[in-house]
Amino acid sequence: MAENPAQAPPRAHDDPPAVKAALILAAVAVMAFFVVVPLVNVFVQALAGGVGVYWRNLSGDADTLHSIKLTLIVAPIAVGLNVTFGIAAAWAIARFRFPGRTLLTALIDLPFTVSPVVVGLFLLLLFGLQGTFGPWLRAHDLKIVFALPGLILATAFVTFPVVARELIPLMEAIGAEEEVAAVSLGARGWQLFRLITLPNIKWGLLYGVILCNARAMGEFGAVYVVSGHIAGKTDTMPLRVEKLFQEYNLPGAFALSSVLAMLALVTLFVKTALEWKTRRDLAEAARLRTQRGEA
Amino acid sequence: MSITVERVTKSFGTFVALGEVSLEVPSGALLALLGPSGSGKTTLLRIIAGLEVADAGAVRYHDEDVTHAPVTERNVGFVFQHYALFRHLTVFENVAFGLRVRGVPRPRVRERVRELLRLVQLEGYERSVPAQLSGGQRQRVALARALAAEPKVLLLDEPFGALDARVRQELRQWLRRLHDELHVTSVFVTHDQEEAFEVADRVVIMNHGRIEQTGSPEEIFEHPANPFVMDFLGNVNVFHGSVQNGRARLGSLEIAYPDYPHDESRAATAFIRSHELEIVRARNGRPSLEAKVTHINPARPVVKVRVYSEAFGVVLTVDVSWERYAELRLTVGDTVYVAPRQLRVFVQDYAI
Predict the structure, then answer these.
(1) What is the pLDDT of residues B37-83, one digit of tens each?
(2) In angstroms, what is the C-alpha Rg of chain B?
(3) Residue contact A195–B87, C-beta within 8 A
(4) What is chain A's mean pLDDT, rounded?
């Protein structure tokens, strides 16, 4: 049986207590200054006029309400697309060896490394009126840019890597053995995925979905470029916050921000819980691996 | 259901895993593929199963050509070295899997799983998950799972390789009994010659992607086809020397070898198993080597004595019965004489 990894061996030379205290204090101070204070401030500002005003700021403004609705449409669709893609990509990378595999792994990360504004611009150049597909789209009466499809495309592209990144290491750690066994027992494609693969990756997948959803709801840069900020039509929550702020409607901006912040907090909570769970699953998978052969 | 493998070839990049291997597994046989790692035995098993596709050649189950049939259509039972149980499913669901994916009705599934768990002596474990079982139990679940859909052939890849010695011993005998009961054509891969000889009706010895010898355990043990088989079987002392005019000359040792009556001297390798050597206190006229006792291992069922022959520069292992050991009263450092009772000579470029 493996030794408990939590029991780290005592270090021969430890840092002096003063250094430790200073480092911890510095970390806490930075966190408080950059994270906690602004977050609390959002809620304080939003609720400055009382709960009634706060509620009116949110529900009284048709454009604000529409932005919430739009975000709740765009984010789930983008997440759905990325779940499909993420599973396909993770399966391909974790289960097969093929030429271009390393390139694909690198390409998956591309949306994280490219500035979202550039992503938006590049969609504009492809699907805008003057863009590559512009004339064709107009001829067929299709609108992508400055409309819902553009928002979904931009959001999906920017959050593209989240699910795949989560699943690749998990599927590699689990290994293909159970899948090979299932195939040898007569399981075909969909049965294999539904009965064996999915149950093994479900927690990691859910974690990816939560994280992807958080990124999708908060996406600003790429969406900013392709939306054309048409109030009541293509403004998502982050875009609406910015517009309210520009219009000096601070209570409105803070109220809507607080909704986003709450979504973030819920996400953070669920994410932490799931992180703990996936880490345990990974450790369990690793333990079963090393333990095979014993007992 | 007999299995025929015909001139099967398989390469991984530049590495030739199997070079034109042909093999016949009679219906109802329990056959062992035995060989060192990298000999191609697992690749051959996976090709028989359909988990790997041969580059050339054919695989037939009875008369049916299955060379290009995917594993899902072959109805084989495959047992993996590391069990590969479904970790999120109970023992019951693991065993039921092959039936469920085939759409077998529920009552029949329940009946069949119960029957199999009784067969592998795991009744009462239906609701356990694999993580709660010992290695031996897991492998028995894997076996029950493989047998559930009544496969035409049962294929086992180093089935006991991951278990400790005592459990391995138990499971071997149990597998043999199970096979006697079910008579399903079975092939198992192992690198352990003791395991192969104990369990199988027929043993196939493989090396470098080729079959060196096929036969019953007795045939192989008594008539090893070549130096590789002899050496691989173990417990053997190797001498390098020459043959000429019906004599084998191994250093100072000269022994009659009528199989080579020619004038021309040829290099030869002689193999003498440790039980074919005899230790005597004094020369008795028979060819023998002077040697010094360097180590005594009082193992069961025989005492293993290591001696060093200075003239020859080799360490030999001799099996001595306990009775003989008591007679000889050997101690480390004694000078003794070692005489071969029997030996096998392979003349180079001649016997091979």
Answers:
(1) 889 999 999 999 999 999 999 999 988 899 988 888 888 999 998 88
(2) 25
(3) no
(4) 85
Task: Give the bridge partners for B303, in sequence order.
Answer: B320
The DSSP secondary-structure symbol of B127 reads: T
Peptide bond into A169 cis (omega under 30): no
DSSP state at residue B103? T
Contact A184 B71 (CB under 8 A): yes
Sign of CA dihedral A46, A52, A53, A59: positive
Report yes or no: A199 at the B interface, CB cutoff 8 Å. yes
- pTM of the predicted structure, to 2 decimals: 0.77
- The phi-psi region of residue B65 (left if phi > 0; otherwise alpha if psi is between -120 and 50; otherwise beta) is beta
Nearest residue to A161 via CA among A233, A215, A101, A117: A215
| Residue B30: closest CA among B237, B226, B185, B238 | B185
Contact B134 A295 (CB under 8 A): yes
For A195, other C-beta atoms within 10 Å of its C-beta total 19
Task: Retrieve residue A11's tokens.
Answer: 């270090």
- Cβ B103 vs Cβ B109: under 8 Å: no
Cα gap B245→B340, rounded to integer Å: 20
- ipTM, two decimals: 0.79
Amino acid at A250: L
Strand order through the sheet with B185-190: B76-79, B153-157, B185-190, B30-34, B202-207, B210-215
d(CA A32, CA A38): 9
**Residue carrying the six token digits 């007999």:** B2
Mutate to test the interface with A, among B72, B112, B147 (most CBs of A within 10 A): B72
